[in-house]
Write a structure and sequence with these properties.
Layout lengths: L24 H6 L2 H5 L50 E9 L4 H18 L31 E6 L42 E7 L2 H14 L4 E10 L46 H7 L15 E10 L1 H5 L3 H8 L28 H6 L7 E2 L2 E7 L6 E11 L2 H15 L6 E11 L11 H4 L3
Bound molecules: the ligand C=CC1=C(C)c2cc3[nH]c(cc4nc(cc5[nH]c(cc1n2)c(C)c5CCC(=O)O)C(CCC(=O)O)=C4C)c(C)c3C=C and fe (ii) ion.
Ligand L6N33NVT binds next to strand 5, helix 8, strand 8 and helix 9.
C-alpha cells in the first residue's frame, strides 16, 4: 500500500533533503525516530585508515599480502556481481512508500553516497555534533575491516507500474524483460517472500559488516521505503576464515589457488562449477551484461537478477542413498566431477546423465548460461513441522530474464529430480543498473529529465 510523504510548508522545503524534514505524526509512528534522522551526506568525517587497497577494474578484488581488501564502489558495472563471492549475504527487498519521483531520487542519491562510504570502510558522517540526537551511524561496524563489502542495488517491476498505477512516470522506461516470473508448476509461493520495488544485496566476509550496511540504508529510507522481505545467507569458504574465496562461483576468475574451491550447498554438493565458463570477458558479454542491442539505454552495462527462495528438505535428503543423491544432480558428491569424468571441471557429457538430472536439465543444449551467486540460509526450525527451515537463496544474474532464466526454471520445475527435495517459496526479479561514477547516483540514467 503506497503511503504519501507530506512535505513541510515553507521556503526551506525545497532545499532540505526529505530525510531531514519533519514528519507527520502518522509517518512518525510508522518509522523510528532514529531512522527519521537518516543520512546527512557530504559532511566531513574521520576516515578510518584501512591501509593499502587493491583495485583491479571490473568490481573484483585481488589478494595482496598485507593489504586490507576493499572492493571499489564506482565503476562500469556495480560490484557484487562478478566480485569473488564473499562469505555472507544480507538481501533486502523494499516497497517504495513515497509517490514522489523527487523523493525516490533523493533516496537513491542518499543510498549511493552512503554505499560509497561504507564499502570503503568509512562510517556515515555526522550531520550534527548534538549528543541529544542519535548518531548518524549506528556504530556496529566501527573498528571492523571493510570485509570486501559490496552493495548492489536493483529496481523491481513495481517501480515502473504497481497495481496498474505509474507512480513515478517511469512505466514507459521499463525494460521488456523485467517482468515477474510466470507461475510455475511446482512452486508454493508466499507473497511475503515475493516481489519488491527496490533491492539491496549486501555481501561481505563479515556478517556484521553486511548487516550494518543494510540497517543503515534502511534507516536512511525511513518514510520513503520499507523492507518487504530480508534474507541472510552464508557460504563455506575454504581456507579463508570467511575470506576472499568463492573460487568456483563468481570467484572463479580471481582468488589464489588454495582458495580456488567451489563452495558446497546444504546438500553437500559443489555448487557454482559451471560459472567458470561465464566468468570470462566473452562469457559476461554474451550472458550477463546488457549490451547496446538490448533493452533501454539506461540499462547498458547493467544486468538482471532473478531471486528464488528455495527451502531444501534436509531430513529427506539425509535419508537418501549416495547413489540417488548423485543421480539427482548428475555429478559426484566428493569431487564434483560430472558422470564419466574425474575432475570437477571436466566437460559434461549429457548422454551419461539421467534424463531428469538437475545438471542435464539446467544445462539444456548449453546455449543458455546464467551467472549464479546464491547463498545457503538456515532459519531455525519450522514451528509447524519441527523440521529444519533451511535452503538456498538462489541468485542469478543474466542479460535477459525471459530468454535465459525463465526457460531454464520451467524445464527444472517440470522435470527436475531435485524437485522431490525442494520447495520454492519466494520469487523476485530486479533490473540491476550499470555502475556509478562519483557525483552520480545508482540508476540515475533511468530518471532522465524527470
Ligand atoms: C532456474 C535456475 C536454477 C535453479 C532454481 C537451481 C536450483 C538449485 N541448484 C542446486 C544445485 C546445483 N546446481 C547446479 C548447476 C546448475 N544449476 C542451474 C540453475 C538452477 N539451479 C544451472 C544453470 C546450473 C549449471 C548447469 C551446467 O551448465 O552445467 C549444480 C552442479 C554444479 C554447478 O555447476 O554449479 C548443483 C550442485 C540446488 C541445490 C538448487 C535448489 C535448491
Ligand atoms: Fe542448480
Amino acid at each position: 500500500m503506497a503511503t504519501t510523504h507530506t512535505p513541510p510548508e515553507g521556503a526551506d522545503a525545497g532545499r532540505t533533503p526529505w530525510w531531514n524534514r519533519p514528519m507527520t505524526r502518522r509517518q512518525m509512528l510508522r518509522t523510528s525516530a532514529a531512522g527519521a534522522l537518516g543520512l546527512a551526506v557530504g559532511a566531513a568525517a574521520a576516515r578510518i585508515g584501512w591501509g593499502a587497497e587493491t583495485r583491479p577494474a571490473g568490481g573484483g578484488t585481488k589478494a595482496e599480502a598485507g593489504s586490507v581488501q576493499v572492493v571499489p564502489f564506482y565503476g562500469e558495472h556495480q560490484a557484487g556481481i562478478t566480485t569473488p563471492q564473499q562469505a555472507h549475504l544480507v538481501l533486502a527487498a523494499y516497497d517504495v512508500l513515497t509517490t514522489r519521483a523527487g523523493e525516490l531520487k533523493d533516496l537513491l542519491r542518499a543510498w549511493t553516497e552512503a554505499a560509497a562510504r561504507m564499502t570503503q570502510g568509512q562510517p556515515l558522517p555526522a550531520s550534527s555534533s548534538l549528543t541529544a540526537l542519535p548518531p548518524a551511524d549506528t556504530g556496529e561496524a566501527l573498528g571492523l575491516p571493510p570485509a570486501r563489502l559490496t552493495l548492489t542495488f536493483g529496481f523491481g517491476p513495481g517501480l515502473f507500474r504497481r497495481d496498474g498505477v505509474d507512480r513515478f512516470g517511469l512505466a514507459s522506461r521499463r525494460p521488456n524483460t523485467l517482468q515477474d516470473i510466470p507461475p510455475m508448476p511446482r512452486e508454493a509461493l508466499d507473497p511475503a517472500w515475493c516481489g519488491g520495488d527496490l533491492l539491496i544485496q549486501a555481501c561481505a566476509d563479515d556478517p556484521q559488516v553486511a548487516f550494518h550496511a543494510v540497517r543503515n540504508l534502511t534507516r536512511a529510507a525511513a518514510g520513503a521505503a520499507a523492507i518487504r522481505w530480508m534474507q541472510r545467507g552464508f557460504l563455506g569458504m575454504p581456507g579463508a576464515g570467511g575470506g576472499d574465496g568463492g573460487g568456483g562461483t563468481a570467484g572463479a576468475a580471481a582468488g589464489s589457488a588454495d582458495r580456488n574451491q567451489t563452495p558446497r550447498n546444504l546438500f553437500g554438493f559443489k555448487d557454482g562449477t559451471a560459472n567458470r565458463s561465464v566468468l570470462t570477458d566473452a562469457g559476461l558479454r554474451q550472458h550477463v551484461w546488457v549490451g547496446p542491442s538490448d533493452g533501454p539505454a539506461w540499462m547498458r552495462g547493467g544486468t538482471y537478477l532473478a531471486v528464488r527462495h528455495i527451502r531444501m528438505h534436509l531430513e529427506v535428503w539425509d535419508r537418501t542413498s549416495l547413489d540417488d543423491q548423485e543421480q539427482t544432480f548428475g555429478r559426484r558428491k566428493d569431487s564434483g566431477a560430472p558422470f564419466g569424468a574425474s575432475d570437477e571441471f571436466d566437460p559434461v557429457d549429457p548422454a551419461r546423465l539421467p534424463q531428469d538430472a538437475h545438471v542435464r536439465l539446467a544445462r539444456g543444449d548449453g546455449s543458455i548460461q546464467l551467472l549464479r551467486r546464491g547463498y545457503s540460509y538456515v532459519a531455525g526450525i519450522d514451528p509447524k513441522t519441527g523440521l529444519l527451515d533451511a535452503g538456498l537463496c538462489f541468485l542469478s544474474f543474466q542479460r535477459d530474464l525471459q530468454r535465459q532464466f525463465v526457460p531454464v526454471l520451467r524445464r527444472l520445475q517440470e522435470q527436475d529430480a531435485l524437485n522431490e527435495y525442494t520447495e520454492h517459496f519466494g520469487s523476485a526479479v530486479f533490473a540491476i543498473p550499470p555502475g556509478t561514477q562519483p557525483g552520480s547516483f545508482v540508476g540515475e540514467g533511468l530518471f532522465g529529465t524527470l
